[in-house]
Amino acid sequence: MDGSYTGTGSGYWLFHHCNKLQEVTVDCDYVGPYAFESCYSLQDVTFTNRDTQFYFLEHDSCHPFNANGSSVMQLTVHGYLCSKASALVEKTKSEPGRNIKLTFSRIEGDTTEHTEQIVPAVAATCSSTGLTEGKICSVCGTVLVRQTVVASPKHKQGTQATTVRAEAVPALGHTEVTDQRVEPTCTKTGLTEGTHCSVCGEVLTAQKEIPAKGHSEVIDEGTEPTCTKPGLTEGKHCSVCNEVLVAQKEIPANGHTEVINEGVKPTCTKPGLTEGKHCSVCNEVLTAQKEIPANGHTEVIDERVEPTCTKAGLTEGKHCSACSEVLTAQEEIPALGHTEVTDQRVEPTCTKTGLTEGTHCSVCGEVLTAQKEIPAKGHSEVIDEGTEPTCTKPGLTEGKHCSVCNEVLTAQEEIPAKGHDVEKVEAKDATCTEDGNNDYYVCRVCGEAFKDEKCEQATTVEAETLSALGHEITKVEAAEPTWEAAGNIEYYICSRCEKLFKDALGTEETTLEKVTLPAIPYVSEIDLARDGELLPDAMEVECGAGDTMTLAAMVWPVGAETTVRWSSSTPAVARVDQDGVVTLLTSGTTVIKAAATDGSKVTAQVTLNVIVRDYAPRLGASTLTLNSVSCAGVSVDLVESYGNQILSVSVDDERFDVEYADSLLTLTSREAVARGTYRMTLEAVCGNGRTYTYPIAVRASQTLPRLTVRQSQRFNLFYRDSQAALTITGGEVESAELTGNSDFVLENEDGEWVIRYADPENAPAKPSTRATLSVSFAGYNIPVTRALTIGTVNTAPKLKRNPTSSTLNTALNSDWSVETVLSGADGESLYAYTDTPGVDVALSGNVLTLTLTEAKNVSANVYVQDDNWTKPVKLTHRVTVTNRLPTLRAAAGTLKLNSRFPSETASTGMILSQGNVSLTDVELTPAAREGTAARAESDKLNVYYDADSGEIVAEIADSGIKNGTYSFACTGILESGTEISGGTVRVTVSNTLPRARLSAAMVRLNRRLAGEESIAVKVTLTGGDGYAIEGFEELPDCLDYADGFLTATIPNADFTGGSYVLNAIVSRNGETATLPAGVILRVQVYDRAPSFRLTAKGKLDVLNPVSEIIYTPRLTNAQGTVTDIRLKGADAELFAAEVVDGVVHLTMAKGCTYSTRTTYKVIPVLTFCGQEVTGSTLSIRVTQSTVKLAKLSNRTVYQSQTAPLVQVLSITSPATAEFGEITLNSRSTAALRNAVEAAGGIEVSGGVVRFPAKAFASLKPGRYTVILDVTPEKAAADAKPIQARFTLTVQK
How many CB atoms lie within 10 A of CB 663? Predict the structure, then answer.
């Protein structure tokens, strides 16, 4: 049990070891042995019954709060001051040897006081101790003043004791006599068997009182009085002693209730009845009704009605004017029908409407098909385009006309001609290249030319134009320049316009400056340059042996001789050709000089300090081990030297491919080559224009992943669409197939591999289950295979028939067919056939019909097949032929109705023993005789046969029906009209209702939480089906009901609680009833300060931002749920807390730093029942998980490499940890540490550490130890960093 308990009884070990029980309220007469043994969480026990007795106080054993072992039971007992509960506490205190600490508290409202009784003192003697006077309560036995021991005074000194020796006489022993057991009766107590000594009278075994049993109450049902007989009220008697507990009283007879049977007037054909009387209760006839003869018909003629086009006519007939009965029926004369005439169609025009074709009757003129108006079509508008006027011709505006009827809709209007608008063109003389012209005039609008301004003399522009004159050209020969005089190039000059030309035709004009050649200057200065940049006097050149560089000599001034003579002071270091190309041969110093050749003796030079380096890339290993079936290949270091970029790589073996990226060479095989060693040459083309070659050896192996397969279920061979899933492990599966088996295929369906029939329509009878599974895994270029045996079963559906056999009656029905209903298989494609002679079968839905061709018993073989089945299911159905009448019985012998819910019905089906006969009706007759009271009650039921459902239905016609069982005889009527007995159907009517039960008989509410605290008590029903609780009658203000729970609250400040009898309202099938038996709920009110305790689970980890401590609140003196929390105290800002579903979740605040060695203190303030309650201080410790790093591999670098070394760190646990600060540990090799720091230090991004390449150039070849200090993100302030270590090898 968990929490609190309120109960009314306590037996042996009732709450034994209920470790979570905290509070108990007991209202009972007796608390047995060990009732609360080892309930260590128990804090409060309240005894609300002052007369509660305790086994422990009677027998001095089996303490109700016994504690096993060394644990201590410590609690408060609440009760009346003068009670056995108080005595229990005092007696427990007097026995300090028990591990029980009890504190007594008077119950609220207790006014009892102890009744003192003196316990006399006992004087001490020389040989025995005495006792002081004490006091006890004479009512409850509580010790008020405990007696203390008085020491023995011993004998006085100087007195000599005289010893008298006597011979011992043996004790006689008791003479035991049995005190006979006295059995208790219903009203008197009994005694258990006991014994006493017949000599001294001492009681040896005390007789104990046996409580009276009490009466076993039996209800003597009352009988209702009838019209003529008296009745009896309900009584009670004891079934054991037959004592009458409640005597039955006679109820006088009711007497007849007279009802008038109204008279019935006679009609033309039926006699009438005089007025009579009967009793409405017992139906006894008091005044009999007498018959009045029928009157006979009064004949009237119904005249003939002639038919029309649309209405039928009638022949002459006759009827009775008194009762309106038809004596001679009038027969209908059919309508004549219309004589149809067509109304011609009228076509619409552009402006007039038309009519559709119609019809009308030429006889009656009725329009049969009305002509509908056809709207006028309207004009089909066409635009007549306008024309613009010219200088001499008029134009037209835009117009419109109809293209159908040609009616002009908008007339076109004439636009006058515009006339000429002229301007004068002035006369101009012709030149060598441009035409001239005479004076003339041009119209700005139409462009026509005229000689006069009035436009009377027409001309053309061509006629008034004067042609260009053309050049008169003379050639000037070329002349070479000298150091003293300028020269010129060849050119031409026009004597008319004096312009210069490059050609004799004068098409390309030039200037004098362009044809003049200046005098040649001497060289005054030479500048040396490389790639367009001037060279310094001296420069350092890093290169490979044989590398070249091209120098250029820039001669000044412009126009001076540009040819120079090149030379090298030390050709062994570098030589230069006359094109300025310098070939660098070895390390050293040389001077490269350029001298002028025009006799000016001007020179320029540069001093080269040549450093020849080896730019070949460094290959980490020449022997590689390759798994040729893996697409991953094998990687080896290939490091660029002195920044010489690797542009491409290749090998001379076409079976392999190589790729280069990030200082790694990766070699893969294009196909799975055989195991062995393959020798080849690697070529690396670099940015310096050179190709470097390396011999390498590749040791090839073939290692495939381990393939495991599990078939999740057996393949059922019976179904064509059967499938079985395969779970394939060993890697990421790209494809899979079954080989060596043509009966099955393997397919992928939504990521799952499934075995199916290869050809379901032609599934083999005995398919092969052996195959080879071939699986292609991602990252491997050949598949993995293994033998596979497909697990199979051949399980057909279990078809059931209802009935399993049939009886066919040849005497009652000529249809020799029987039906049985199949179950166990569904599907629209089911069909059936038989190989049994004399039988035909048909299957419609799930109904199987067997038809016999001859009347004899047969066991038919029926084969049921489905399109999805590989073979049929065989059934054997026995058909027995007979000519005897079938038997009929109800499926359920008794139907049950409840008079409190009169709208309910009960029903049962009818079962015929033969298959080819059917019921048309069932007659139901009350078994009680006419005129009896039982028959009258039976008539208050409506029992009938529903032919549509084939069921007998019973319903209550009169809600005043008495409880009891009513019998109805069934008579079935077959299609042939034959009647057969159907036995008896019984209808039992009762008015019983269920009983309501509460999950708790008492609730306790805290006055300090009035209006906020509530306690829910669950309400359930027992003793009936289909009932629902709708509510309660007249609930007090302190209680509310909803959704199966009574909720208790304190409604106002004056509320003191109480005991309430509650009557539930129940419903069934839309009708309601109030339960007569109420339930009792006691509501107690107390006044105590609410408090709580928190139980913690979980821990806070600085490396896990979502870590939390979950506190489960335990509320005291309150019933409710925690809704909010706030923290206070010195460390409150370091933590965040929220309440989710009544539970407190405490987490670390964002952006705070913690120490794992500090104990943080916060005070929780919880909100529940609308109040804030402050709790005890919480002590919180923050932890940090142990961080584990993946082992780092050793690395190799080169003095010549320009790419940084990249080392990637990985945290293996915890998963939530992230990298923070990473530094170089001081215990790393000093030379390495100094070189890295001099080159700018390491660069860190997450877990990626980059060592600068400059650091490697200054290191000597050898091995260096690298230690990295790793501090995780958000680590505790006092946490030590984790170290990652690897060895760095530096090579030339």
Answer: 20
Is 1154 within 8 Å of 1103 (Cβ atoms)? Answer: no
Alpha-carbon distance of 1236 to 1255, in angstroms, equals 5
Antiparallel, parallel or unpaired: β 326-328 and 317-320: antiparallel
Per-residue model confidence (pLDDT) at position 959: 87
Is the CB of residue 1283 less than 8 Å from the CB of residue 1267?
Answer: yes
CB 640 within 8 A of CB 649: no
Q: In degrees rounded to 5, what are phi and psi of residue 1233?
A: -60, -40
Query: Do you know the residue count of the chain?
Result: 1292
User: How would you classify the pairing of strands 847-852 and 858-865?
Assistant: unpaired
The helix or strand, by DSSP H or E, that contains position 56, with its residue range, turns out to be helix 55-59
pLDDT, one tens digit per residue, over 216-244 is: 787 888 888 888 888 888 888 887 887 88
User: What contacts 24+ positions apart, CB below 8 Å, involve 29-34?
Assistant: 29/53, 30/54, 30/55, 31/55, 31/64, 32/62, 32/64, 33/61, 33/62, 33/64, 34/62, 34/63, 34/64, 34/66
pTM of this structure? 0.46
If DSSP codes are grouped into helix, strand and coil, which group holds residue 1023? coil
With tokens 């298989």, the residue in question is 825
- Per-residue model confidence (pLDDT) at position 314: 85
- Does the N-terminal peptide bond of residue 348 adopt cis geometry, omega within 30 degrees of 0? no
Distance from C-alpha of 550 to C-alpha of 788, rounded to nearest angstrom: 73
Confidence of residue 157 (pLDDT cuts 50, 70, 90): very low
Using one digit for the tens of pLDDT, what is the confidence trace for 1006-1017? 999 998 999 999
**Type of residue numbered 320:** C
Which token pair is 222?
């009352």
DSSP sequence for 13-40: TTTTT-TEEEEEEE--SEE-TTTTTT-T
Q: H or E stretch including 895?
A: strand 894-898
- In the block, which residue shows the tokens 């001609």? 417
Burial class (CB in 10 A: 0-12, 13-18, 19+), 1143: middle
Q: Which residues contact 1155 (CB under 8 A, 6 or more apart)?
A: 1182, 1276, 1277, 1278
Among 686, 528, 535, residue whose Cα is nearest residue 613:
686
Which helix (H) or strand (E) segment holds residue 86: the answer is helix 84-93
- Residue 157: count other Cβ atoms within 10 Å of its Cβ: 5
Determine contact, residues 1211/1183, Cβ cutoff 8 Å: no
- Dihedral angle sign, alpha carbons of residues 114, 118, 119, 124: positive
| Torsion of Cα atoms, 1128 then 1130 then 1136 then 1137, to 10° | -40
Tell me what the pLDDT averaged over the chain comes to: 88
Distance CA 829, CA 837 (A): 25
Contact between residue 1097 and residue 1132 where contact means Cβ atoms under 8 Å apart: no
CA dist., res. 700 & res. 591, Å (int): 55
E strand residue ranges, 446-502: 449-450, 458-459, 465-466, 473-476, 487-488, 491-494, 500-501
Give per-residue pLDDT as tens, 1160-1212: 999 999 999 999 999 999 999 999 999 999 999 999 999 888 889 999 999 99
Question: E strand or H helix at 93, and its extent?
Answer: helix 84-93
Say what the pLDDT of residue 2 is.
44
> Cα 903 to chain center, whole Å?
43
With cut-offs at 50, 70 and 90, classify the pLDDT of residue 13.
low
pLDDT beyond 70 at 12: no
- CB–CB of 829/860 below 8 Å? no
Please report which helix (H) or strand (E) contains residue 955, including its range: strand 951-956
How much of the chain is helix, strand and coil, in % rounded to 5? 5, 45, 50
Q: How far apart are CA 257 and CA 226, in angstroms?
A: 11
Q: How far is residue 364 from each of residues 314, 334, 343, 359, 372, measured CA to CA in Å?
A: 20, 17, 15, 12, 21
